[in-house]
């Protein structure tokens, strides 16, 4: 076991990820993480994920939920099981590249106030992915994204992924993030009011407000097969994002932001739906992407107009979450 690997516990949240979960676990074990320090929290998978872990990774801890408890709750379940100095939260569709844990450990040493550290994320072809995000604010929903990219390229574009030096950021992308145990104890667990999006963003903002820092350390790299779950359930994932965005406004930004976004998000969705409908008609229905987006925006708009029912969104939610 390498010294760096022994400092880390790993939490992998899984949902029907049998095709990718094995690679994620192998990448952690290869860097010296003890099998007993790897925890898979499963959110009601119906595939062969359990059999995979039992047969190929018998020492890995399996925590099985009977239903989809959401990302934040699943991570918190895992946090109660690992006690190492650092905790790596890793998507089931992500893999550590060689030397990642050693680089993350060195980064924690170099930045003693770092509560969370994000590695460089790359896709299967080695192309960098965005690794950081700004704190959500209502006015950012109005400004064109192209303008935001020019004003803050490190947050809104891919440029941050190209830098070679460590850099502090507002918040990180939760596909792979390493947390300091002492910071967790001071800041608290992830907020379980967020089901699938923005839970890591809220935690990062909470960390900054309590005197900690958030860092991007490009010396560590992780391969990420971007958004496997979101791709399978595109409309449902968009519903969950809007739900989390409204939750963020209510809990962090204030009542005024919550009211504004409650009006703005369905209005913007309606405009997007109409635009895709016009594009679909103009192409005589031959443009598949327009047809797909038309259906997705239509379902998202219907969710808003129906009063945002909690049972809609990603499937197999636990009863309390879908009530």
From TrEMBL:
CDD domains: GT_2_like_c. Signal peptide: none annotated. Pfam families: Glyco_tranf_2_3. InterPro entries: Nucleotide-diphossugar_trans. SUPFAM superfamilies: Nucleotide-diphospho-sugar transferases (SSF53448). It comes from the Bacteria. Keywords: Glycosyltransferase, Transferase. One of its GO terms (molecular function) is glycosyltransferase activity. Belongs to the glycosyltransferase 2 family. This is Glycosyl transferase, family 2. It comes from Acidithiobacillus caldus (strain SM-1).
